[in-house]
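Fold this complex.
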Amino acid sequence: MKSGAAMVVEALKAENIEIIFGYPGGVVIPLFDILFAEPDIHVVLTRHEQAAVHAADGYARSTGKTGVCLVTSGPGATNTVTGLANANFDSVPIVCLTGQVPRSMIGNDAFQEADIVGITRPVTKHNYIVTDRSALPRTLKEAFHIASTGRPGPVVVDLPKDILTEKLDDQYPESIQMRSYNPVIKGHQGQIRRAAELLNEAKKPLFYIGGGIHIADASEVFRKLSKKTGIPSVSSLMGIGGLPADNPLNLGMLGMHGTYVANMAVSNCDVLFGIGTRFDDRATGDLATFAPHAKIVHIDIDPSAIARNVTVEVPIVGDARQVIEELIGPCRAASIAPWLEEIDGWRNAHPLNPDAGGNKLSPGMVIQAVSEVFPDAIIATEVGQNQMWAALFYNYRHQRSLITSGGLGTMGFGFPAAIGAKLGNPGKTVIDIAGDGSIQMNIQELATAAQEGLAIIIVILNNGYLGMVRQWQELFFNKRYSSTCLRKRAECPPACNNPGDTCLAYIPDFVKLAEAYDAVGIRVTKKEEVIPALKKAAESKNRPVILDFIIEEEANVWPMVPAGAAISNMLLGDET
Amino acid sequence: MTHTISLLVENHQGVLARISGLFSGRAYNLESLTVGVTADSSISRITLVCSGDDNVIEQIKKQLNKLVDVIKLTDLTGLPAVHRELALIKVSASPSQRGEIVQVVDVFRGKIVDVGSDSMVIEATGSTEKIDDMLTILSAYTVLEIARSGLISIERGKKIKKVLKGV
Ligand SMILES: Cc1ncc(C[n+]2csc(CCOP(=O)(O)OP(=O)(O)O)c2C)c(N)n1
Ligand SMILES: [Mg+2]
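Structure:
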């Protein structure tokens, strides 16, 4: 006879789960109790349930394995919502176990009761409440199956306390058949042939890769296809790293903060070949003028992602790796010299400029230095300008090397995600590129990182602002920096848009904060200190490091496509 | 355009909430939704009537298909199918009006299922249009209350997947 809690642990082991991210509370004590004596499963106690989900997410994105979290009922469960929505948007496999009040009390507004299945329904791939102990093994099996197959996503399993204690003599199933859930993996042969023909005939073909490249582990086969055809590529934020950044065929990121060459190539190509991407509005800009001359081919495992935003000539539902493998044969080396020449023209006309001007550090140059000192790192990011600079200026070379919140754009994601990534990849350097605003959203996780002995490097690009919002205010709201100055104090004039060196000190002092958490803290203000500080950070073996780079306050991210405009319509930052 | 979609779904807790939540969350137009268990008690049939342009309808179908509990989706629009709705209509009817109302009801092959001193309840089944038409005629009287079931539909003929026989 085994308790429900014991069955949960049996399931975790059967699914080869070595690590879970959790936070205990009343109703899940029976489960934590078994994990106390469990040598095969490492339980990481985060300091907030949101961070537990982000950490599971970072673990999953960086390893391809399913991330698992375990939280208590009520507030523990509701704290997971942002993490789940974030993972759902970016298709990350997570199984989130939530405690629930005993069955007899459900619906009675019991202490720490929340209808978490109701609350998370729209932000998960699927969710369950287990109302019958005998259904527990199958439900857990389904949860792991659903989370990790097809288009992956988070699955919540809500576990009433009495389910965890009820005993039954049962076993975790080895396999599962679901009549209602059978994702299509293999692409349609005729469509694959048509796609290859379109590519072979195109004069101005262009690949457009998305996060699906990483999820499907398709980076290697895509690199083969790219090499064989010689066709250039652009990438969404999520597709970065699918092709090495320094590969001449890689034109970089498209979209709102995409490179000039990427956006011009999309706007002029005659075949646009999308792989594992949603054609999201931050990437496409104005849909009416997106890729106006192109026939579009679209491979995606999720049929609902295809032809949602753009008209697709050749839709292919299937797994990106399998479909690309089948494409390599029929695709020929493209003779597209004039097209590549046109592209080089754009590339040379407006290359990215890492120099923000001014006397303080340039964020682009800081990131380039990170790239130089840590060429094979896993980079997690927060959200805002820091995220865009990290996307544009780090030289990504590997699949799954950029861990960033794409769809939801969740500030506070990067650091806990970095914790998950580091635990999943202990041999790799893991760096969180952070904004001074975002990092404060889950700063409490310094305790987790310190106690787990994780030498994660947090690169704060400290501009004293919620910089991305400030940039919009500068460009579109007359420089009215409403609620974006992070140095604003009670004594400040109500409408200041010009803080300077005479302002009171920034709060918090990130160096002292690091010390409070037994982490290493280094402030960097001068160019010549950048590389030494990074090298110093590299020396830390088991303590997190905060590098507080004081950057040019009003540095902007360029290029920028104003919201709703055509992506060929870029502000380049050199306008006066 | 209006589409009638028939779904076979796992008879799981919350499946109705998933479907209605999909429509509200994605701002799709849902005109009616009915649900009932099939001969296989683990499977329910949902008939829903929704509207939107071709792209929206395509997305609605894809999103419904994506729900883990949806076993099979059939868009009955344009297929040979039987569609029925049930309506219960209470009209104010003085003894002198009863005869006329009964005539109207007969024309629409409805039934009088209750007669009170100054009102009667009419039961009508048929296509949504037929019930709409009947209500238009009955609006000449005072309609006190209406209860409509929403559309239920079933495809004609006997082509059905083996696993799902009898549902
Ligand atoms: C949780 C959350 N709240 C608000 C926002 C809106 N937002 C997007 S970027 C940004 C500013 C981020 O500031 P910071 O972390 O300092 O980064 P910077 O842009 O300055 O690099 C804000 C407030 C968000 N993305 N996420
Ligand atoms: Mg900032």
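DSSP finds four helices and nine strands in chain B.
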